[in-house]
Amino acid sequence: ILNVEQSPQSLHVQEGDSTNFTCSFPSSNFYALHWYRWETAKSPEALFVMTLNGDEKKKGRISATLNTKEGYSYLYIKGSQPEDSATYLCARNTGNQFYFGTGTSLTVIP
Amino acid sequence: NAGVTQTPKFQVLKTGQSMTLQCAQDMNHEYMSWYRQDPGMGLRLIHYSVGAGITDQGEVPNGYNVSRSTTEDFPLRLLSAAPSQTSVYFCASSPLTGTGVYGYTFGSGTRLTVV
Questions:
Q1: In this structure, are residues B93 and B24 in contact, taking their beta carbons and an 8 Å threshold?
Q2: Contact A84, A16 (CB under 8 A)
Q3: Which 14-43 residues of chain B touch chain A by CB within 8 A?
Q4: pLDDT tens digits, residue range B6-37?
Q5: Do strands A19-24 and A56-59 pair parallel, antiparallel, or not at all (unpaired)?
Q6: Running DSSP on this structure, what letter comes out for residue B9?
Q7: A18 pLDDT more than 90
Q8: How many CB atoms within 10 Å of residue B81?
Q9: Which of A77-81, B46-50, B83-87, B97-101 is least confident?
Q10: Which one of A1, A44, A95 has the shortest CB-CB distance to B59?
């Protein structure tokens, strides 16, 4: 098992604050890094997939970066809104296998 | 396009009972998998399949069986339910490209309680 670690485990921010969290993973045998958004009582939904060192992806107020050499990815949320409250999962793909982190639980306080 | 369909959504079992969780996808995905999600543990892989007739064990396979007779269906069987199998179960599928660039499509989950 190739460990994927996410930090922090949970986060509370005020509406309007910007925030970021980290996904760390082994840099060997790397194919892709996926981010998922997982709302309570729903199933995870894909946010981003990144494959190349230096990749940056953006969707609205959410963006992500990838550093495959040092084995980390950052997820940024600009101007957090209550609807951003969810668990954000990252997963490392080694070709055909996904290895998930335990997620960062974000609560945005109105 | 239904995506990944899991049934049932909720189930209560008595210790020792057996049951099958159903998973079907209509996207012609070769790769299908079952995860369980427990508080503080994240998603843990139970079994997976890279195509019809091929299955393999994941991280936590004990107490579960799977089969893949068709591309569309990937049922998960609990042979003799135990309270430790109380969890939320997710089925997920993905195209099999070997590139890692396609993410999972998840089912809506099955909340199982074993009493």
A1: no
A2: no
A3: 31, 33, 35, 40-43
A4: 999 999 999 999 999 999 999 999 999 999 99
A5: unpaired
A6: S
A7: yes
A8: 22
A9: B97-101
A10: A1
